[in-house]
């Protein structure tokens, strides 16, 4: 990684960044909703008027699901640990059947009752402010480090351009904050078209050209095998027996958690109908193919004989070493823009939670739709500033650790949000007790294990290593069932919505 500015790459980078900035500001007039919401309204700003069709939803959900940090971190993980880093592939295969079965039902409930957030759904279903607050707080806390990690991805490529200091990163995020404030969800939805096209071009070019320059795919895999053999043990190309169970449970738990996050649910709630969501569950696996190709960059780094200071530098170093400066600038701009879309949607999702599930019930119960939109806009700015300060003032590892915990935490909202779609046998006190125990167990276990995503259990002398979030979810459910049995009171058929 050079400290000298690559002016050609930087010029290309600035051009495309400026292009999406203009698109972001123009997006406020795009895809306006119906006559009922032509004025200021949280549905318009925070959900794009609930008017996004199949293609817009495909780009938006894909854009905030496959983030800049994914493009940087997945190859970095494969570079570091080999085949184990490919757990993201089965995870993104498992997630779409879950989306197909669950999300249309959830969309219908949210649309019918005017819900904007997951916590809205929970309160409308169970009438419990405590459970609503628990779900909302979990969503906001789990989202903050996720936004910060988008900045990590952007920071890596900015440094690869030769820029130093924190000012370029801060300036980029200020621009994101301004056009998100102006256009709301429409800005990342429109930018997602550009971002995804750029990412596809970059990845396809990489998987074709890099092997041609290093001797083909046999050289890529043999170099990776030799490198992992020198590290002492496994080839790095296949899983060893001890990795099978953690690999599988990480994939399953991550798939269950993925669409519990506020940003992914925001994309779902913004769809115009349930059929749009089902179509996307069919089409979105195309991104899984892309993710598999991205992961291969981790192996290619060995064939290119790169020397990097951190694993996160692998992808930028690969493009700097093997591509002309103009294409490196294009690739870096694609990664940076890939941070803008999810960061914007994440901040909108967190702002919606704050407005609907904290401000409205506890500060101003009579808040008007226009006032809701204003509060959400200000909250989205605060969320972005918080994420930026997290990166500028705290070690990056702190944000990564919190994001790993965020996956454990957000999974604990699954029973309250999803189980009620199919059965109302569990009431709010039981679900709240399960949530509390799941959060406490997951946090304590992850902390005791050194903030690792998996935990080892010794049963009958055998060791079983399982995703911590999944263990916490099982305990969550067991406690909820036990508390419900202890209460011995049937669940209500539902309560009037607050919307």
Question: Can you characterise this structure?
Answer:
This protein starts with 6 loop residues before the first helix and ends in a 12-residue tail after the last helix. The protein is 74% helix and 2% strand. It is an all-alpha fold and 499 residues long. The chain contains 21 helices and two strands. The radius of gyration is 22 Å and the shape is globular. A two-stranded antiparallel sheet has the order 1-2. It has one domain: Sodium/glucose cotransporter (Up-down Bundle).
Give keywords:
single chain, 499 residues, mainly alpha, Sodium/glucose cotransporter, two-stranded antiparallel sheet
Give the helices and strands, then pairings:
Blueprint: H1 7-26, H2 42-47, H3 54-65, H4 68-81, H5 88-113, H6 118-126, H7 129-160, H8 167-183, H9 186-214, H10 217-232, H11 241-258, H12 262-269, H13 274-283, H14 286-303, H15 314-322, H16 325-362, H17 369-393, H18 396-411, H19 414-418, H20 428-448, E1 454-459, E2 462-467, H21 468-487
Antiparallel strand pairs: 1-2
């Amino acid at each position: 990684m050079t400290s000298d500015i690559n002016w050609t790459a930087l010029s290309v980078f600035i051009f495309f960044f400026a292009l999406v900035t203009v698109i972001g500001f123009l997006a406020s007039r795009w895809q306006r909703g119906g006559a009922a919401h032509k004025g200021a309204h949280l549905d318009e700003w925070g959900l794009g008027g609930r008017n996004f069709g199949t293609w817009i939803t495909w780009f938006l959900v894909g854009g905030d699901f496959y983030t800049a940090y994914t493009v940087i971190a997945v190859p970095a993980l494969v570079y570091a640990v080999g085949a184990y880093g490919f757990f993201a592939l089965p995870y993104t295969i498992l997630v779409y059947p879950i989306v197909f079965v669950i999300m249309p039902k959830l969309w219908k409930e949210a649309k019918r009752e005017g819900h904007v957030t997951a916590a809205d759904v929970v309160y409308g279903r169970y009438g419990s402010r405590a459970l609503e607050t628990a779900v909302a707080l979990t969503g906001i806390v789990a989202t903050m480090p996720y936004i910060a990690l988008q900045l990590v991805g952007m920071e890596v490529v900015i440094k690869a351009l030769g820029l130093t200091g924190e000012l370029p990163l801060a300036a980029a995020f200020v621009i994101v904050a301004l056009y998100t404030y102006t256009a709301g969800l429409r800005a990342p939805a429109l930018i997602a078209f550009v971002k995804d096209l750029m990412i596809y071009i970059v990845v396809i070019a990489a998987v074709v050209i890099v092997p041609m320059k290093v001797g083909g795919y046999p050289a890529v895999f043999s170099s990776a095998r030799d490198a992992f053999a020198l590290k002492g043990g496994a080839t790095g190309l296949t899983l060893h027996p001890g990795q099978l169970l953690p690999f599988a449970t990480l994939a399953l738990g991550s798939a269950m958690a993925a669409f519990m996050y506020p940003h992914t649910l925001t994309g779902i709630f913004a769809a115009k109908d349930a059929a749009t969501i089902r179509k996307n569950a069919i089409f979105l696996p195309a991104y899984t193919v892309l993710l598999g190709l991205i992961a291969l960059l981790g192996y290619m780094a060995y064939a290119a004989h790169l020397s990097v200071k951190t694993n996160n530098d692998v992808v930028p170093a690969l493009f700097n070493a093997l591509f002309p400066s103009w294409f490196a600038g294009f690739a870096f701009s694609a990664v940076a823009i890939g941070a803008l879309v999810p960061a914007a949607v994440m901040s909108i999702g967190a702002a919606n939670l704050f407005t609907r599930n904290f401000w409205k019930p506890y500060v101003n119960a009579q808040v008007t739709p226009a006032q809701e939109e204003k509060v959400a806009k200000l909250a989205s700015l605060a969320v972005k500033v918080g994420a930026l300060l997290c990166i500028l003032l705290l070690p990056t590892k702190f944000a990564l650790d919190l994001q790993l915990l965020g996956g454990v935490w957000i999974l604990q909202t699954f029973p309250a949000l999803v189980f009620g779609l199919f059965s109302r046998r569990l009431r709010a006190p039981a679900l709240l007790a399960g949530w509390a125990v799941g959060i406490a167990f997951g946090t304590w276990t992850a902390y005791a294990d050194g903030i690792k995503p998996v935990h080892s259990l010794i049963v009958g002398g055998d060791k079983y290593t399982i995703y911590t979030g999944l263990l916490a979810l099982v305990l969550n459910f067991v406690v909820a069932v036990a508390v419900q049995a202890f209460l011995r009171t049937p669940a209500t058929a539902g309560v009037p919505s607050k919307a």
